[in-house]
Backbone:
């Protein structure tokens, strides 16, 4: 089954064609990061406007790369594989920015209706869980997935495609948000994750021991106190090198993420650990997760950077399994900006 | 040649089908902020009831605003999707033009579409003195009063010159006219009339019929060519609040 997927939940306009929830026939992402960079964060109205301008060219490109024309018809006749027509259309319905979500949902429902195929609304967070699957189809379940990005920090156990339970999440700021805010405070620009990753390489991660919120007895996280601690420390020690603050801050975040993730993996007896979300591209987090996995003899699955950040291929995979599990969404599907993540 | 018309730039979510023989049917719903939930359901029902296959649609028309930003984007995105998937062209028409056309059909020569664009502003479309074309403006209701007043004075002057002498009356249509009715009446009575609540939103059937009359015309564009009319720059406000509620209110990948 061939799924066309559309993702417009935040500031990436993305489309992909995914076969049987496992093979990526095409995946196209247009990031608006330059558009928002000068404001130091995503400006919702600008994002919505950009999605409207980008969506048709992006979807067209994804179709073409999968051997289809703009109308979804095979360019070359083929029964299966490249050139096979679209069997379903999936789109992110939430969580995200409502004005951005609406663009993808409205366009996708129209495509599905015009092609007379089912439409399936996808939870963006569920999409992230499929990142490792798409790159390693032979990956063995169950796994614990650490989903970390600017909007989310979640620890999830995945037992089968489409079957998962949330173990814990952040009680305040998302990990990526802490990166953004600290980067902003240090004058490192936006987006904060890559900026801190870059300068932290030249800093001493042990120089300052910033607090690690233990959230004892849970798999939950808290990062707002850490951000405050960084600000207070720099205020009191203005001579400290930015590189050292960045490295020490990053180490504090990575410490708690790695510790909780592997604690969960060990206690649940899963067969591996996956990282997902934009913060999973952080080089220190990847390094420390690999080391922890090696120490415990647990396989660690690290998606490529393109698969960590928002993309539509993961939505296509999630859409394929959601369609099999729950059936098509009705034509009345809407945007759900505050959509949560249940078991 | 069946045309699909989509109206969701204002308080309504509405769809209509029409061909050279006239309107085939329409569904118009008060949408509030539920345009995306209602629009496609309405179209699916309309197609079924009218006995039209979606594949028979040869052109798409959509209200591109001015109006509600999110509503406009829902309509434009849907129009883009249908046009793209069906391989047909799109006609984007202004909400003001649709209102004006509907008034003209009702026999009102000096018809002025007035749309509420929020924050105390309205957008309006003033017919030129020569007739056909109209010029779009936006601003405070008081500016609309001044604009209409000047326009009516100019019309009266023309009438005096050619000896017909009649006092011209303008007909105001649209949600902006209804919302600011008192201000407009104070400034313009007795020289204006109101089209009434049946023209509070741009009638989707008028859009469909206009689109049929323009089939193969130069205003049709490819799916990627249609654009919303915003009339004001984007609010530059970072959505920390939407992004912050944990877990996962929205996605922002660094
Ligand atoms: Zn994301």
Residues:
């Amino acid at each position: 089954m061939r799924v066309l997927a559309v993702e417009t939940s935040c500031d990436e306009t993305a489309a992909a064609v995914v076969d049987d929830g496992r093979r990526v026939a095409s995946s196209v992402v247009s990031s608006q990061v330059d558009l928002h960079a000068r404001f130091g964060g995503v400006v919702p109205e600008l994002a919505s406007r950009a999605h409207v301008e980008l969506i048709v060219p992006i979807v067209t490109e994804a179709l073409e790369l999968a051997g289809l024309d703009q109308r979804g018809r095979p360019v070359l006749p083929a029964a299966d594989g490249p050139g096979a027509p679209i069997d379903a259309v999936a789109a992110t319905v939430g969580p995200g920015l409502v004005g951005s979500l609406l663009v993808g949902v409205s366009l996708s429902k129209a495509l599905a209706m015009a092609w007379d195929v089912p439409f399936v609304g996808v939870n963006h967070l569920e999409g992230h869980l499929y990142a490792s699957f798409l790159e390693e189809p032979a990956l063995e379940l169950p796994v614990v997935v650490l989903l970390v990005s600017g909007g989310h920090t979640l620890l999830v156990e995945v037992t089968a495609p489409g079957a998962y339970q949330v173990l814990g999440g952040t009680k305040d700021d998302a990990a990526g948000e802490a990166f953004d805010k600290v980067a902003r405070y240090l004058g490192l620009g936006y987006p904060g994750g890559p900026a801190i990753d870059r300068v932290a390489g030249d800093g001493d991660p042990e120089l300052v021991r910033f607090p690690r919120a233990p959230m004892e007895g849970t798999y939950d996280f808290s990062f707002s106190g850490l951000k405050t601690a960084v600000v207070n420390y720099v205020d009191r020690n203005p001579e400290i090198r930015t590189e050292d603050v960045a490295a020490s801050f990053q180490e504090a975040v990575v410490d708690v993420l790695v510790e909780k993730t592997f604690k969960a993996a060990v206690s649940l007896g899963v067969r591996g650990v996956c990282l997902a979300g934009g913060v999973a591209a952080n080089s220190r987090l990847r390094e420390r997760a690999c080391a922890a996995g090696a120490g415990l003899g647990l396989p660690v699955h690290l998606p490529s950077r393109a698969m960590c950040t928002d993309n539509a291929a993961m939505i296509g995979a999630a859409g394929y399994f959601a369609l099999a599990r729950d059936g098509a969404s009705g034509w009345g599907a809407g945007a759900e900006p505050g959509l949560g993540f249940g078991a | 040649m069946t045309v699909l018309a989509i109206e969701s730039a204002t308080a309504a979510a509405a769809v209509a089908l029409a061909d050279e023989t006239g309107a085939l049917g329409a569904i118009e719903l008060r949408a509030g902020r539920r345009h995306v939930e209602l629009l496609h359901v309405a179209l699916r029902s309309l197609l079924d009831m009218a006995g039209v296959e979606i594949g028979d649609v040869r052109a798409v028309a959509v209200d591109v605003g001015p109006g509600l930003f999110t509503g406009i984007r829902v309509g434009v995105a849907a129009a883009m999707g249908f046009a793209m998937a069906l391989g047909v062209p799109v006609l984007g028409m202004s909400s003001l033009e649709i209102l004006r056309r509907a008034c003209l059909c009702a026999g009102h020569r000096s018809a002025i579409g007035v749309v509420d664009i929020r924050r105390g502003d309205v957008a309006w479309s003033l017919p030129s003195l020569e007739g056909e074309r109209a010029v779009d403006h936006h601003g405070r209701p008081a500016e609309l009063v001044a604009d209409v007043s000047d326009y009516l004075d100019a019309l009266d002057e023309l009438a005096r010159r050619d000896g017909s002498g009649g006092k011209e009356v303008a007909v105001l249509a649209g949600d902006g006219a209804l919302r600011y009715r008192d201000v407009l009446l104070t400034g313009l009575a007795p020289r204006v009339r109101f089209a009434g609540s049946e023209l509070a939103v741009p009638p989707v059937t008028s859009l469909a019929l206009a689109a049929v009359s323009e089939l193969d015309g130069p205003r049709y564009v490819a799916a990627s060519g249609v654009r919303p009319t915003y009339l004001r720059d984007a609010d530059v406000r970072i959505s920390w609040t939407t992004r912050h509620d944990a877990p996962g209110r929205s996605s922002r990948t660094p």
About this structure: Residues 2-132+308-326 of chain A form a domain with the Nucleotidyltransferase; domain 5 fold (CATH 3.30.420.40). Chain A has twelve helices and ten strands. The pocket of zinc ion is lined by residues A 124, 128, 149, 277, 310; B 251, 253 (CB under 6 Å).
